[in-house]
Amino acid sequence: MKQHEDSTEHVAAQLDAELRESGVLAAGFRWKRLDGGRTNRVWLLENGDRRASLVCRLFLNDRGTPLFPNLPHAEVTAFGALAGTGLAPELYWHGETGKGRCLIYRACLGQTWQSGVRGVAHCLARLHRQRMPRGLRRIGTSPADLIAEGMRMLNGLTIPERETLLACQPRPSPVSPGPDAFLHGDPVPGNIVMTAGGAVLIDWQCPGIGDPVHDLAIFLSPAMQTLGRGAALTMAERSDCLQSYGDPAVAARYEISEAAFTWHMACYCTWRMAHGHADYAPALAAELHRLNQLR
Q1: What's the number of CA atoms in the CB half-sphere (13 Å) around residue 205?
Q2: Pairing, β 54-58 against β 137-138
Q3: Least C-beta-crowded within 10 Å: which of 61, 70, 139, 263?
Q4: Predicted pLDDT at 63
């Protein structure tokens, strides 16, 4: 059986047996499949002591997308670089298994983010001040880069939404690039856990190096907010986030580039819909609504 065809219960049982036999895990963990992971399989491992709970991520082959690649080695690099900062969970183990590459980290005691943008803005600002590890991908953020990548996503698609996007493609505005920073790459609501110590970023499968506006644009994206919690941020929340981030230059670059970021995300939603993910339709509608506001 191929990896993605195995039942969740069967895969969990095989992983549990293999990891116990190799001494990675003790006996007695209960494996609970976690919802929300759109790329890999994720389980919560519980043994009765909430503080000892773990999260296991099984990386699936060929599940990366144009916007969010699936890079297990980069995730390990990110965990190592952020050890002790509180910005990422504590890495427990990583390695190859009979079912594929796995990464296990200590579960964060908290709730998936739903509201309150200031804590997220402060978390991203702290991350972007961290020392950048070597070997991460470079993420382009100029309006020209975003529009070019959006066109690559639209090429070959046949769904009607493609024509809508081609008709409303924005003209790229010139903007001077900012200094490079350590980027999470995917700070959507489901990848932010609010703990007693503040926001913690999880799911580091596609970190990178580039302008901090990338992470802010992903978090502020109406599409990603709609997918993650059912509604886009209000204008007041968007403004509060940018102000709380604490760097007017970053906020200014985002505002200049926002139309390109918005169109780029709309292209991504269209690409996902063309590849069988109908749940991206409301996300696309939210992104197009914002794009119309910006025109």
Answers
A1: 25
A2: unpaired
A3: 61
A4: 80
78-86 long-range CB contacts below 8 Å, 24 or more apart?
A: 78/133, 78/136, 78/184, 78/204, 78/207, 79/103, 79/105, 79/204, 80/133, 81/130, 81/131, 81/132, 81/133, 81/182, 82/127, 82/130, 85/126, 85/130, 86/197, 86/198, 86/200
> 3-state SS of 179-236?
CCEEECCCCCHHHEEEECCEEEECCCCCCEEECCHHHHHHHHCHHHHHHHHCCCCCHH
Mean local confidence (pLDDT), 71-80: 97
Question: Residues 240, 169: contact at Cβ < 8 Å?
Answer: no
Enumerate domains of the chain plus CATH numbers.
Answer: 3-110 (3.30.200.20), 111-294 (3.90.1200.10)
The verdict on pTM exceeding 0.85 is: yes
The string of pLDDT tens digits covering residues 15-49 is: 999 999 999 999 999 999 998 666 899 999 999 99
Residue 93 has pLDDT above 70, yes or no: yes
For β-strands 110-112 and 100-106, DSSP reports them as unpaired
The first and second tokens of residue 216, run together, are 């802010």
